[in-house]
Write a structure and sequence with these properties.
CATH architecture of the domain at 25-90: Alpha Horseshoe
Structural class: mainly alpha
Helix content: over 70%
Largest sheet: none
CATH superfamily of the domain at 25-90: Tetratricopeptide repeat domain
Order of helices and strands: HHHHHHHHHHHHHHH
Shape: globular
Distance between the termini: 72 Å
Number of strands: 0
């Protein structure tokens, strides 16, 4: 690994490391890749990670960042493979397993029912492992909350609130949103609206939460309130496609006489 790093870094950076410099130059290659992903420099992250994730690599952190990169590239199957490699090399990191669950979920999108039925237990197992490693791992708890809320009963689905309530204790606004999702799933639109509004008060300025409020107003037949929320979501994020679509559909729907 040391030889790999020196091949990747210019002499000036190596000198800074030897002198004990702090900041970006003191980061591991995987940390540098994470920083590049944060800046949305996917090409540079790809270049950095390529030699760190070859067939002989034992660098779990590098494979984890490769999985993150593949998620950003919408390459779900490759993301799953990268996260599986990371969890095999280091089975102690809850975030490795929760991201594996997220990647499996992405891979399932658009698949037929039989494929989903076979794949869903693998996703559930990944989220369960992340929470077993850290009972307060929020991403894993959210993954389980959504699994149970969305899965059919035959696959163990349930509208129980346990995991969402655990999220609420750790990150209140996220917990309120998850409880809103469960209420919406059970067609308690007024209850869902209350949860989404609570989430919006706890952390204002989130386009997704404002949009969710608008979606519930629309379900309740309150078109003007829904329109106001969809427009507010687009002010926060003009590129938020669900709000654009919902506003278009709302404006196209016939007015009540």
């Amino acid at each position: 690994m040391k030889n790999q790093i020196t091949k990747l870094l210019p002499l000036g950076v190596i000198a800074a490391l030897l002198l004990g410099a702090t900041g970006v130059f003191a980061q591991s290659p995987a940390d540098q890749a994470a920083a590049l992903l944060k800046k949305n420099d996917l090409a540079a992250a790809e270049t950095l990670l390529a030699p760190l994730t070859d067939a002989d690599s034992q660098d779990a952190a590098a494979f984890f960042q490769l999985g993150q990169l593949r998620l950003r590239q919408q390459r779900a199957a490759d993301a799953v493979a990268a996260f599986e490699k990371a969890t095999t090399l280091d089975a102690t990191k809850p975030e490795y397993f929760s991201q594996l669950g997220i990647a499996i979920n992405m891979k399932m999108q658009g698949a037929n029912f039989m494929v989903q039925a076979v794949t869903a237990p693998k996703m559930k197992k990944a989220f369960e492992k992340s929470v077993a490693l850290d009972p307060n791992h929020v991403a894993g708890l959210i993954g389980l909350a959504r699994y149970y809320a969305n899965a059919p009963e035959i696959a163990g689905g349930s509208l129980e609130k346990e995991f969402a309530e655990r999220v609420q204790k750790l990150v209140p606004h996220l917990g309120e949103s998850e409880l809103g999702r469960i209420a919406e799933r059970s067609e308690d639109f007024a209850g869902a609206l209350a949860r989404y509004e609570a989430a919006d008060k706890l952390k204002p300025g989130q386009a997704g939460t404002v949009f969710a409020c608008g979606r519930m107003f629309a379900k309740l037949g309150q078109k003007e309130e829904a329109r106001a929320k969809f427009e507010a979501a687009l002010k926060i994020n003009p590129e938020f496609e669900p709000a654009k679509k919902a506003l278009t559909e709302l404006n196209a729907s016939p007015a009540k006489s």
